[in-house]
Amino acid sequence: MADSAGFGAFSQRELRSIAKVFQVMGDEAVEESRKVAYDISNLAKNEIKSAGYARTKGNKAVKRIVDGASVSRTSKTGRLSYGFAGQRFSGGGTTQRLWAGYEFGSKVRSRKDGIVRRFNQFPEYSGRYGSGSRGWFIYPTLRKIQPQLTQKYLAAMNKVVKDWSKSG
C-alpha cells in the first residue's frame, strides 16, 4: 500500500489485500480495526455535516440529510450512509429519494419558452468530475479530506498490524 502524504484512495487490488489481511487477523485486531474505522468515519461525518450546514440552497433539506447520517460500527474499513426511507419530508418525500438531487443538482433544460431547470427545488447541476458528478457538499468534502482520512487509517492500521503480529 502507498504511504505517501499525497495518497488519494485505495485501488481495488489494495482493498482486496486488506480484506485478506482481515481474514487472518485475530478477533482483537479485527475489533480494533472496527473502532479505528468508526472513529475515522465519524470524523468524515462531522466534516460533511459542517459543509452541509454551510449550504444556502435547500438548506433545511440538506440539514435533515446530513443530520440523519449513519456510521456503521461493524465495518472494518468505515462506512457512511445517507438517505433513509424513515426520514420523511412534509410533502411525502424521503431523504432516501431526495439526497442525490440536493447533492448533485438538477440539469438545466432548454424549452421553447426559455431556459427552465427541470426540478426547481434542487440546486443547479454541480458539473462533471472525472467520470461522475462533482457534487455540492458530500463528495467535495470527501475529496478534500481523503488524504487526511487515508493517512489516519493507514497509521492506525499499521499500529494494529504491529500489535497483532507481536501478540499473534
Summarize this structure briefly.
This protein is mainly alpha-helical and 168 residues long. The chain has helices spanning 12-24, 27-53, 59-67, 95-104, 138-167; strands at 70-71, 80-81, 108-111, 114-117, 128-129, 132-133.
Description:
By secondary structure, the protein is mainly α. The protein has helices spanning 12-24, 27-53, 59-67, 95-104, 138-167, and strands spanning 70-71, 80-81, 108-111, 114-117, 128-129, 132-133. The chain has one domain. It contains five helices and six strands; from the N terminus they run αααββαββββα. Strand 3 and strand 4 form a beta hairpin. Helix 2 (27-53) packs antiparallel against helix 5. It is elongated.
Q: Strands, helices and their partners?
A:
Layout (H helix, E strand, L loop, with lengths): L11 H13 L2 H27 L5 H9 L2 E2 L8 E2 L13 H10 L3 E4 L2 E4 L10 E2 L2 E2 L4 H30 L1
Antiparallel strand pairs: 1-2, 3-4, 5-6
Identify the strand order in the major beta sheet.
Answer: 1-2
Q: Mean pLDDT, as a whole number?
A: 78
Number of helices: 5
Number of strands: 6
Low-confidence runs of at least 5 consecutive residues:
1-8
Biggest sheet layout: 2 strands, antiparallel
What is the CA-based Rg, rounded? Answer: 19 Å
How far the N terminus sits from the C terminus, by CA atoms, comes to: 22 Å
Count of separate structural domains: 1
Percent of residues in beta strands:
5-15%
Outline: elongated
Write the element-wise H/E pattern from the N-terminal end onward.
HHHEEHEEEEH
Structural class, from helix and strand content? mainly alpha
**Which range best describes the helical content: under 10%, 10-25%, 25-40%, 40-55%, 55-70% or over 70%?**
40-55%
